[in-house]
Each structure stands twice: as C-alpha cells, then as structure tokens.
Amino acid sequence: MLTITIKQGKEKRLLSGDLLIYATAIERVDGRPQEKNKPGATAIVQTSARQFLARAAWNPLSEVRARIWSFREDEPVDHAMMKRRVRAAIAKRAAAVRAAAPTDLVPVIRGDDDGLPGLLVDSYGGTAGYLICQFQSAGVDAWKVPIVQALLADTGCSNVYERCDELVRKSEGLPVFYRALAGEEPPDHVLVTENGSRYSMDLRTGFKYPKLRS
What is the pTM of this model? Predict the structure, then answer.
C-alpha cells in the first residue's frame, strides 16, 4: 500500500477535518511504482513523524493528489466500506425518494457528505426509473463495481446510468463515459421537476432543453 508523508506543519488542515491533500502538502510518497501511477489507489497518510493521519484515495494525475476516505486507523478501505456508505446514504434520503413524484429528480448520494468523495447519484422515477451517477474522483471510480452493486441492492432500482462532467473527469485524468452500468439507458427527453422548477432534460447528459415559446 502507498504511504503519503505530509510535510511538517501541513497536517494541521487534515487534523481540522480537511478532506483534500494537494501536492504542496506532500513530503514524499512511498510504494510500488504501479501503485504510485494508479489513480484511485488507497494510501496511508502519515505525519512527518510517521504518525497515522488517515486513509485516502491517491491520484497522481490530479491537482488534488489525495482525498480522505477515513480518519480512523481501524477502518479499512474495502468493498464492505463502500457498500456500507452507499447503504447509509440511501437510508438517509429514503423518505424523500419515496415521497417523490414520478418526474422528480431526487438526490441519493452527495459526495463528501456521505463519505464518498466525488460520487453524485440522483434518482428519477423511483424504483421503476433510473439512478443517474457521476463518478467525479479517482477514488470512487476505482470502487465503481461495489458501489453499483450496493445501489442495485439497496434501492430496488435496476437501471443505473453513468453520466459525467467532462471537465471534472479530465481534470482527474479519468476517461469520459456516458453509459448504462446496469439495466437500460434512460430516454433522451423527459420532463423533470427539480427544486420547484420544471423542464425537459436529457438524463444521459444532463442537457436541459430550452423552453418552447408559445
């Protein structure tokens, strides 16, 4: 496993709860070359005195070199953690999803708020509809399979689609995808209600169609 050593004094931001590690804060990175070159690889983060700080997702291709998964030394980053965090996020917003109208676009997972940095998931049409996902960091992208498995198991929705913000994905050194990860692709033109506004959208890309003038 990779080990990221933070420069003396730079650990203060992490100790205060900051989840991002920039290149300027890193003293050195130790590990096998294939791990150093792998976006999303799990790393131990330590102080310059070699004291544990966190576990993080490493990305040598991004300005944000690492994103914190956990400040707990006894919490491994594995399939079980991903599924546990997905399940907790779904449970937190389950009432809102159940109460949603068929055209509502409802948040299911919101990145850092749910311990899944860079992951955005929205529900459209309930269990008979679609889960629209954006994997905006190398960490969640590397754990895509267990995340999708958990979404399928805990929402009851069989259609999971990956949309992307191209600028964000490219800044992370990640390939650009628009594709079904499970089930069917959503239609390219649906009526969406979000935050009180109604508009037509292509769920696959997020493009909002202009309103027609009468």
Answer: 0.94
